[in-house]
């Protein structure tokens, strides 16, 4: 899997440049053959505007949200995109400046106001952003663009029109939810977010949105609460795990300092990034809760060395264990510190130097024993034949976990993971698909056999792909019988972007649909059949 491709021309800069939305869908030029059964829409979210007027956004997660759509029908493909009409977008366009503070970019008061108005604006507190650029997914029959705050945005999946802004705080006791929910077989959606617990302490709530209801969000509820290891410093959460019977929450050492958040948020120039800090002594904690009935397993205290975590790959149960596969970054240094646009848009040698200071990525498997007996103290509790992961019971009742490494390469990340979700979420599985990053630059698509550690790679010179989404072949009996869909940018080509369709079994190209426009970086998305 290790990439030998260098990028001295720095073409990757193009995926971090602003674009305009389209007035109508544009046709794609097809090379190869699109599978006849593949009919639907690929919806993707990401930043599309990296500056407003003469004010630049600074972080990869700051740019104003752009929703993309590739429509596939009868072997033909069209492409369309529109900006989400969030308050962040509308007010920025109206005032021609950054009005609402984003992840790594601070908003400043209007310079046209008099000094007294500006003074009170400084100390009024920043508004929470509704810039939903991270993901888009269905809730019931509707589609919502999301970020990680309490705001989500209802979007028409056909016209891409912005329909409604929804404040989750009206329905749930959460400060926000992740952009990576889980969907159960009956259509129930689960998610997690931090909240205020008893005595103003922080906790984590797992929430449930029921299926098949006219307004499912209004019927959402908290199903279980987990404690925070630090009273006023919740861990950053980007995703979580779900098996048939358990939820898995990994409490990482990257923390949100609540006091800093409440004080800095009222001072000119502060951003979300200013409120993060790393706990270099806590390591990483794993929490388990039962699913139905929901209950926190307080007696199961799992601990391991420090790592950053953004994406779970999969979790499943086997012979009395919960197996958890993760895309990790070693250590407690926050990876997002290295995703400022100044780093990502530098010359290639500068990009490499910056990445060398960042945590090392690694795909890991952890095994959590469910059946624990005190007489097993000091022993490895894992007896599964197919993994080298261990779990050792200590005298204080904690269980120290050591992982099996499924993939590790120097500055080579396997990230934005996908699986055959509809058939293998929460099940024992073999294949994961991911975006390969070289020094944080996306330059390949990777298939990983999590049982044998074999890898397959799609890569093309000066091409920058996105997260590969797996779509199963109708009636398929094999886990990897399907296609992968990825949006690829090839700067300098006559048609500089294309939808890539790969055979998921062999990772060979079936077709590509070229469009005559640059498509900026996309983060996550969904396929709508």
Automatic annotation (TrEMBL):
Fe cation binds at residues 180, 238, 311, 524. Its cofactor is Fe(2+). The keyword Zinc does not apply. Keywords: Iron, Metal-binding. One of its GO terms (molecular function) is retinol isomerase activity. GO terms for biological process: retinal metabolic process; zeaxanthin biosynthetic process. It comes from the Eukaryota. Binds 1 Fe(2+) ion per subunit. PANTHER family: ALL-TRANS-RETINYL ESTER 13-CIS ISOMEROHYDROLASE-RELATED, BETA-CAROTENE DIOXYGENASE. Belongs to the carotenoid oxygenase family. This is Retinoid isomerohydrolase RPE65. It comes from Anabas testudineus. The lineage of its organism: Eukaryota, Metazoa, Chordata, Craniata, Vertebrata.
């Amino acid at each position: 899997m290790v990439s030998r491709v260098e990028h001295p021309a720095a073409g990757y800069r193009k995926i971090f440049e602003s674009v305009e939305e389209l007035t109508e869908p544009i046709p794609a030029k097809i090379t190869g053959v699109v599978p006849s059964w593949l009919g639907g829409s690929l919806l993707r979210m990401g930043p599309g505007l990296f500056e407003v007027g003469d004010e630049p956004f600074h972080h990869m997660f700051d740019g104003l949200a752009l929703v993309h759509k590739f429509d596939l029908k009868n072997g033909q493909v069209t492409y369309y995109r529109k900006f989400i009409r969030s308050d962040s977008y509308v007010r920025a366009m109206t005032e021609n400046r950054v009005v609402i503070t984003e992840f790594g970019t601070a908003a400043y008061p209007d310079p046209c106001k008099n000094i007294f108005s500006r003074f009170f604006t400084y100390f009024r507190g920043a508004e929470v952003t509704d810039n939903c650029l991270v993901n888009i997914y269905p809730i019931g029959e509707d589609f919502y663009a999301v970020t990680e705050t309490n705001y989500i945005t209802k979007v028409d999946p056909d016209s891409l029109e912005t329909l409604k802004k929804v404040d989750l705080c009206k329905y749930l006791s959460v400060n926000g939810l992740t952009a990576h929910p889980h969907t159960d077989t009956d259509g129930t959606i689960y998610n997690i977010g931090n909240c205020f617990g008893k005595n103003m302490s922080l906790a984590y709530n797992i929430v449930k949105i029921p299926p098949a209801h006219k307004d499912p969000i209004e019927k959402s509820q908290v199903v279980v609460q987990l404690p925070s290891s630090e009273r006023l410093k919740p861990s950053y959460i980007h995703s979580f795990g779900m098996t048939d019977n358990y939820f898995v929450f990994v409490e990482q050492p990257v923390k949100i300092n609540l006091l800093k958040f409440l004080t800095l948020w009222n001072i000119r120039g502060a951003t979300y990034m200013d409120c993060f800090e790393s706990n270099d002594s806590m390591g990483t904690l794993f929490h388990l809760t039962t699913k139905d009935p929901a209950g926190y397993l307080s007696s199961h205290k799992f601990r391991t060395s420090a790592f950053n975590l953004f994406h779970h790959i999969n979790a499943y149960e086997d012979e009395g264990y919960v197996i958890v596969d993760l895309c990790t970054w070693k250590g407690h240094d926050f990876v997002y510190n290295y995703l400022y646009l100044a780093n990502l848009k530098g010359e290639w040698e500068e990009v490499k130097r910056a990445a060398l200071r960042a945590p090392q990525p690694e795909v890991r498997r952890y095994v959590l024993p469910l059946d624990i007996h005190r007489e097993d103290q000091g022993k490895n509790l894992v007896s599964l034949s197919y993994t080298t992961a261990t779990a050792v019971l200590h005298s204080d009742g904690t269980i120290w976990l050591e992982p099996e490494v499924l993939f590790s390469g120097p500055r080579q990340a396997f990230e934005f993971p996908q699986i055959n979700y509809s058939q293998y979420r929460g099940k024992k599985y073999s294949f994961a698909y991911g975006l390969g990053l070289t020094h944080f630059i996306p330059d390949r698509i990777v298939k990983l056999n999590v049982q044998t550690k074999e890898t397959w790679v799609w890569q093309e010179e000066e091409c920058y792909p996105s997260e590969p989404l797996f779509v199963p072949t109708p009636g398929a009996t094999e886990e990897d019988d399907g296609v992968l869909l990825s949006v690829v940018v090839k700067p300098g080509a006559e048609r500089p972007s294309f939808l890539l369709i790969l055979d998921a079994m062999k990772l060979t190209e079936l077709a590509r649909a070229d469009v005559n426009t640059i498509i900026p970086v996309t983060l996550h998305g969904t396929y709508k059949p």
